[in-house]
Amino acid sequence: MNGRKWLIKNKNKALKEPVHEKAVSSISRDLQINEKELYSLFDEAPDLKVHHIKLNGETNAILTYLEGLTDKKTIQSNILKPLMTKMKSIDQLWSSNVIYSHIICTLSWTEIEAALLEGNCILFVNGEEKAIIIDSQGWPQRSVEEPHSETMLKANHEGFLETASQNIALIRRFLPNRELKIKQYKIGERAKTNIYLIYLRDVTNPIIIEELEQRINSFTVDTLLTTGELEQYIEDATFSPFPQSILTERPDATAMHILEGRVAIIVDRSPRVLITPVNFLTFFQTIDDYSLRWYLAIFVRLLRLLSFFIAVFLPALYIVVIAFHYEVLPMKLILSISESREHVPVSPFLEAILMESTLELLREAGIRLPSNIGQTVSIVGGIVIGQAAVQAGLVSNIMVIVVSLTAIASFIVPVFDMAYSIRLVRFPMMILGWMFGMVGIAMGFMIILAHLVTMESMGTSYGTPLSPMKYSDWKDSVIRSPLRNLKRRQSGPRPIQRNKK
Amino acid sequence: MMEYTSEGVAMRSQSINNISLMQYIFIIHGTQVGIGILTLPRELTEIAGTDGWISILIGGAFSILVSILITSIMKKHPDKTLYDLLLIYFGSYLGTLVNFIVVLYGALATITVIFTTLFVINVWVLVETPTYLILAGYLIPLFIIGSNGIKALGRYSEITFYFSIWMPILLLFPLKDAHVLNLLPVVKEGWYPIISAVRTTFLSFLGFEMAFFFYPYLTCKQHATKGIIVANLLSLGMFLVITMVSYLFFSPKEITQYEWPTLTLLKVIEFSFLERFEIIYLSFYMYVLSTTWLPYTYVTILGSQAILKKGSHKKHLLIFIFLLLLISIFFQPSYLQIAKLAKTWGSAGYIMGYVFPVLLGFYIILHHFFKTRKSA
Asked: N- or C-end of chain A: fewer Cβ atoms within 10 A?
């Protein structure tokens, strides 16, 4: 009790630390004072450009911007050119019939600072107590590319980019509907990051929006660099091995989820969009399922679920069968297995752990390397090490089969966050199997089930539609029935409008 | 158009501790299908020969009757569990005493089922693993489910039912060597042995008394009676299938030789790629058994919380888990002790499940009678 009090006390102390804030001064009539103030705000910033111009041939003015965050062409043709050539009187500035870009008048230095950092131009005019923020954003961007981590066969080939406005545009292209609402938040103590909640107002449950709003406002960070950080700040179960929201790079998949009543969260500067609330089976669905023939789609979905069980339980099953219950297998099979294991110096458990870790090493190495070297690694790792290890008598060939099967099965899961979790969960399962044999596997199954059943994502149960059981939802979760039959939205995200239209 | 209908209301209540009708059914059914199954065919044959299935039907009828009685008692106070009810009707001192007995009953049931589970595992699957270690493994899901309240229990029981559907179906496998003649003639030794075997089926049907504790959490209470009857019928069907299959497969003399004839039945199941299938079956049956001891644990914790009136749910659960572990370290039961435990639980359950509801029903009727007279 005392300890806790002490902790809280300390925490409060930390919070009360004086925050150093610059005294806010207002914009001066004198241009030189303004310039000085500008240089004191951005004192070691060689990318700050200050343009001295003469408006109307007589009034001094300064146009300032951060080079690189602004678009040079816009500045030259939309701002400088009309200012120099077309302007007849100063009053024209405020009525915005000179400058071709979007402008805002401002009086405060804090606004100016923020606007400059976001890539706007600021125009100070001598003799005026206000400044103009001129929209001229244009930072280095890549063009729309196919998302590498989520390739689909039949869906489109656009992926999200690093600029929030463009990502919003990509989503709007799929959902040109006025009910598509966007809420903006700024978080980050040191550098503000823009966050956008995107949802359909007449479909998404307002409770979820409320809950999300509350969670987004509940934490403080320096700044958000990736969407993955946001995911961990707003998720429900911190200690769960399973992901509780989907991060996707696909605008079409995002639109699909928004149509189901989920919320998409765009974090500026991150090409991944967070989708919440989700349930366990959502991770096994892709947008491609809807363009496949329906029985093929059912087959693929069941295959993914099967792959979940293989990836989690197969190595444990191997340990159990070899080390505990070899009597489960028929005689001939036992003989052939024992023949291949004859020279293996380690126990089945150690063998499995070693091989599975090797697999993880290969996978991790493959991610970091450039794609052409990555292939070499997989060949060297997969074929050479596997084959050679068996021939050297270090592992049995059954083990190699088991390892490759689990690897393949885990890669079938479409969302790679879930695939990671599955691969991780496999290790405790192996330990349980090693300790308790078949009973241990059943125990592991119980634990996973108990965990999945109790977990919630934004107040919706993670296990739906399996538990709580909702048969009507099975049509588009466990299987996928013909599209004509999918007239209602999934009940998982609790949409307020159930019928699709 | 927006649909702000009753769905919206249901959504709001989703995060509150509630169970649906299906979950209610599966909690009760899950509690009923427990360790009784393992010994039921033998115990029945010892008394009633191969006419035991008639006893099951009669026992089932009894349990349905009592279930309806319990439901109608609970309907008088739809928001209260048995613990609150006893305090209302018996006053704080006597009520607490009875509550304490009910808690002891819950603890006894939990301990009996868990230790039988552990014993069976130790005999059939893991011969050398110490009991407390296996128990520790089972306590993890117990903690996860227990600390998340009744909603989690409902969902767990539900999904466990679906995951275990394959198990009774596989039990039909030995029917390929069935001898229908084993059953004939029906009622060979008169009705007396059949009637006297009914009492042995009572232990198997125990579990409907969960209505005492879970009824208040049910969302659609108007279907409660229907639900509990369905649960009883499901269990009845399960027991019938298992006894019938053992009667048809074993000869009447043979059954009595096996301690757990149901497990012996599994030995017959064999595939070209799998032998000794009963190891896999049994391991997963131990998982299915968890739906028996989880509700009893819940009852125990609920009761201890009601009596002590302090401490969070989680704290009580942790203490109970700790006690279970402690017991398992010092108490390694033999077969006879397990059988004795089961017998004690059987008689306690007989009182708790059959005698007590009837008495309580009478008492409540009298109570209301006198109360209305007094006020009149």
From this structure: N
